[in-house]
Specification:
The chain is of the alpha/beta class. The chain has eight helices and six strands. The protein has a six-stranded mixed sheet, with helices on both faces.
């Protein structure tokens, strides 16, 4: 079955980091601490075929472990205890995503790969294991389905399913897997209702 992978990441931050583009002297590098992904079938009943989640031990450019800021912990629910118990090295986490994708294109709400690959790999000093050609922006899919640009601009990925009134299991914002699932449920709904063609996932 043809499939698409929808993924999301949680990046280290302090309160206000996004507004500052992570450029304040005390801001951490915007590297990933959690990846979530879902596999959407593009044939038959367009099922959600599986999910994947990984926690990453966030280290700075000198190889030292970042201490998670209380704001980040409160925002994402990722704690030091979770990282210690379940966190893996970035290289291992990306290999897991690549294996889960099985060669399918990876879509995010925006361009998370620029942080997941470009920044995180640069800081870690490793070669990006997944080429840029494997990624695409899921916003294109919503545009193809007719979502107004002004609505796209003000709808975060965790509210996308609610925007379309899609019934789905509960999801928590700023949880990478749940955010990926919110987009996945929406895309599944749009395909099933004929607003989005499965062939659109294969276009450059």
């Amino acid at each position: 079955m043809k499939t698409a992978i929808i993924f999301d990441c949680e990046f280290l931050c302090l309160e206000g980091s996004q507004r500052r583009f992570w450029c304040a002297a005390h801001d951490p590098d915007p590297i990933i601490a959690r990846i979530g992904a879902a596999r959407l079938g593009l044939e038959g009943d367009f099922p959600v075929l599986g999910t994947h989640k990984a926690y990453i031990r966030p280290v700075d450019r000198f190889g030292e472990r970042y201490t998670l800021d209380p704001f980040f912990i409160g925002l994402t629910g990722i704690t030091e205890e979770i990282i210690e118990a379940e966190g893996v090295a970035l290289k291992e986490a990306l290999a897991g995503v690549d294996q889960f994708s099985a060669g399918a294109r990876l879509w995010s709400w925006g361009k998370d790969e620029l942080n997941m690959i470009a920044i995180s790999c640069y800081v870690a000093g490793i070669r990006p294991p997944i080429p840029a050609t494997r990624f695409d922006n899921a916003v294109k899919l919503l545009i193809a389905a007719g979502m107004p640009i002004e609505d796209l601009a003000r709808t975060p990925c965790n509210k996308l399913a609610d925007y379309y009134g899609v019934e789905h299991p509960p999801v928590q914002g700023h949880d990478a897997l749940d955010d990926a699932l919110s987009v996945t449920y929406t895309l599944q709904h749009l395909i099933k209702t004929g607003k989005l063609r499965p062939e659109t996932f294969g276009r450059p």
